[in-house]
Amino acid sequence: MRTERNLTRLDRVFARLDREPERPAGLDLPRMSRHRIVLFSATLAFYLAIVVAVLTTSWLVRFDWQVMFFRPYQQWPEIHAFLDYWVVLGQRGPTAVMVAAWLGWRSWRQHTIRPLLTFGAALLLLNVTVGAAKIGMGRLGPHYATTIGANEMWLGGDIFPSGHTANAVVTWGILAYMASTPRTRRYLSALSAVVSLSVGLTTVYLGTHWLSDVFLGWAAGLLVLLALPWVEPLLTRVEGWIFDLRELWRSRRAGSAVPAPVTPVPAMVQQPSAAASADEPPHREPVGSARPARAPAYLAPGPHTPRSERSPATPAGSRRPPHSERASRAATSPRPVAGG
């Protein structure tokens, strides 16, 4: 009766991980189409317009001060505790861990590291662009403002644009970017838009950002998402390079493996060398000792096999020279008669 071992869940997990990573055939990644280029250009124009409006201390700066004096956290204090936790959805550390875990599971199921590479590239672009803008413009926040009605630029601050808002746009928007179907992409796009808008407005409610900071954060995060298709060729080369390193490591590991030990030949079937047989006397077995088992038929007989058991003939015939007397004697000798 044939029985098969039932694989445990851990066995199935390791069997799944042992499969070769393959790029999924149905993964439809967005490309830099004409529609996307138009959106990128419009978002970039909006970004520059916000920067110019703040630098020139326009109506947008005055509106920032009006919202700050309104103090939303004092108008609706009952939601303050909830929004203190909700704003965590825009913090880079917790959100990056959650999204990286989800994309790591996607990478394992689809046998490709493209989701993780895309997320890493998005975070790198976000840190470079938003960080450079924050340090370069140095705007102070509402809690540290010094002059009423001023734009508070180049005073050593780091809130313009809003990092929470930009991070929420990129972190949750990357899920929509990596969606496999258009329907899933639409749902995730709507979800990421709601989360990023609410996180940005929460920072205004808490008084940590001006409203113009949130506008610029939305534009900065959207620019990163719209620019990702330009990075796709580089990500393809990086993925191929990583897989090449993996194959090189596997080949080196296989080459350095220790060969299997060779099973020694039993002493009873080893033939003694000519020098040893000439110098040493033949070994005699003690009386009453157990006789060693005979070698198998496909092995040569041992050194102590009696001559009578050996075959005296060779393929060419007997090794004894022909003798004329023996031949004539065998021919002339009478045969005995049976029963006589």
Please outline the helices and strands:
Blueprint: H1 9-17, H2 34-55, H3 59-70, H4 72-75, H5 80-86, H6 92-110, H7 114-137, H8 163-177, H9 182-206, H10 211-227, H11 232-255, H12 274-279, E1 313-314, E2 317-318, H13 324-332
Antiparallel strand pairs: 1-2
Percent helix, as a range, is 55-70%
Gyration radius, in Å: 44 Å
For the sheet with most strands, the description reads:
2 strands, antiparallel
Provide the spatial order of strands within the biggest beta sheet.
Answer: 1-2
Secondary structure tally: strands: 2
Structural class: mainly alpha
Q: Number of helical segments?
A: 13
Provide the low-confidence segments as ranges: 272-278, 285-290, 295-300, 336-340
Order of helices and strands: HHHHHHHHHHHHEEH
Q: Estimate what percentage of residues fall within beta strands.
A: under 5%
Shape assignment: elongated
Distance between the termini: 67 Å
